[in-house]
Design goal:
globular, about 290 residues, alpha/beta, TIM Barrel, eight-stranded parallel β-sheet
């Protein structure tokens, strides 16, 4: 059984713009020393790899993972057109090689886009599994690992059974996104893929759709989820995938790095995190009205 005290605080950059040296300099001061590189789709071809390496080394920030791009018609491992799958792999190979050069160890990948009709689920799964095995081959040559992310709605990976099938190649691991689960419980999902979770995307939601809220702003039972991860021997970072700019579904100020650290500290000590935002489905507080 793992121990949550060994889960370091980490943050996905969720970048709509390129991260700056100021971003990297502020992170360690707030207790953030591990990051995932993640960008809006259009920015991937413009990543400033050398600058990221310089900044991370200068300020002692570990580059843990790269979230590979996803876009239904341009970056989709399960797309029915083989030309799209080939181009997806070509671009991902280029990004993976550059990421490996600066020390990134994990590639996080969406196994599909959506919508996927029930009648196409089996063929989509077959295409995704073939593509993911190729990515695992590439990762082997680069000294990296692949973490397949569970996805919501009609995507592949929406249920525990889907993830079990996607991870049939023993070289593949899982990225467990806590706010993507719309079928079944977190406890059962984690139990099903015990031993395969390499990394997390932590955020809260309302069980209706993905929201990417800060833990405490949604409905997840965090003590139960954390206990399930400990029983599953999870040993990776506690990695928040929450943009500092608030989502359109919640009312709150923009987050600063210390907000993630404060939330992490509360969760790791079994406390209820401070609630920063108010979902739009809830009654608004007096100061908003």
């Amino acid at each position: 059984m793992s121990d949550r005290s060994h889960w370091p605080l980490a943050v996905s950059l969720c970048s709509r713009t390129h991260p700056t040296e100021n971003d990297f300099s502020e992170m360690p001061e707030a207790g953030v020393k591990t990051v995932e590189l993640s960008y809006a789709f259009a920015l991937y071809s413009e990543i400033e790899w050398k600058n990221i390496q310089i900044y991370s080394q200068r300020y002692g920030v570990t580059l843990w993972s790269l979230h590979l791009p996803f876009e239904p018609q341009k970056a989709n491992p399960a797309h029915p057109d083989p030309a799209v799958r080939t181009e997806t792999f070509r671009f991902d190979r280029e990004l993976a090689e550059k990421a490996a050069d600066i020390g990134v160890k994990v590639l996080v990948v969406h196994p599909s886009a959506e919508p996927i009709e029930d009648s196409d689920h089996t063929e989509s799964m077959k295409r995704a599994k073939e593509w993911l095995s190729k990515l695992a081959d590439l990762a082997d040559t680069l000294g990296m690992k692949v973490a397949v992310e569970n996805l919501p709605r009609t995507c592949l990976g929406r249920k525990a059974e889907d993830m079990t099938e996607l991870l049939e190649d023993s070289r593949l691991s899982a990225c467990f996104d806590t706010n993507h689960l719309l079928y079944g419980s977190h406890k059962d999902f984690i139990r099903t893929i015990t031993g395969r979770i390499l990394t997390l995307h932590v955020s809260d939601y309302d069980f209706i759709n993905e929201r990417h809220w800060l833990p405490g702003e949604g409905k997840i039972d965090w003590p139960e989820l954390i206990s399930a991860l400990e029983k599953a021997d999870y040993n990776g970072p506690w990695l928040y995938e929450i943009s500092r700019k608030p989502e359109k579904t919640i009312v709150r100020r923009q987050l600063v790095w210390k907000d993630y650290a404060k939330n992490h500290a509360a969760l790791m000590t079994g406390k209820t995190p401070e609630r920063f935002g108010f979902p739009l489905s809830d009654p608004l507080p007096m100061w908003v009205e």
